[in-house]
Amino acid sequence: MSATASRPTDPGRATAPRAERFARPLLVAFLVAAAVDLAGLLAGLDAVHLVAKPLLMPLLAGYAFVRGGPRLLVAALLFGWGGDVFLLADNDLAFLLGMGSFAVGHVCYLTLFGRDRAPAALATGVAYALVLAVFLVLIWSDLPAELRVPVAGYSLLLTAMAWRAGVLGRYAAAGGALFLLSDALIATGIAEWPRLPAPDFWVMLTYIAAQLLLALGVLWAARAGGRP
């Protein structure tokens, strides 16, 4: 028996290239589902949105998984999927459950970003804190009373995630900022502020871009030798 034949096979090394063959199809499927969802929202086809939206995060999570992404990234995306599904129902309980699922996802992101010991930019943190404070002051009286405290707590967690995402570079930082913008658009809708035409389209566009950029930022940092 040769030395090569007698050497034990590393299962991880053997299966990783095999799994990565599915990375491109999963990413393409995610982009197609995103395009279909956004087109459905622009056309006012609610049935298309109901079908396409729940496909988005599982496809992106599958892509992250076969690319060897950290478990916390996959978990964050799947909790985002939970939030997506809950928010398809139009009632306060579903909104709170969806917000809770997204909040757990943000905790996953924060834990993941915390593994990188690089300091987040203090100036960016101050800017985010000021924007959050001003936004909450302006919107507070227009929010339903029972949603004020949950929205404030969730907004603080989301802002912390968006700030900390910057440690992984500009793509993850842009993803965090877009996530913040997407949820701000939802909050203004709840407060019944004036909104852009086709408001759900803009919410989903910024949300889809946010999750994709966060996922790519984590994966690229890992490939470059970063902590995640």
From TrEMBL:
Q: Where is this gene product found?
A: Membrane
In the bilayer, the protein is annotated as:
Multi-pass membrane protein
Q: Where are its TM segments located?
A: 26-48, 60-81, 93-113, 120-141, 171-190, 202-222
Q: Which InterPro entries match?
A: TMEM86B-like
Write one Pfam family the protein is assigned to. Answer: YhhN
User: What UniProt keywords are attached to this protein's entry?
Assistant: Membrane, Transmembrane, Transmembrane helix
Q: Give the family per the record.
A: Belongs to the TMEM86 family.
Put simply, this protein is called Lysoplasmalogenase
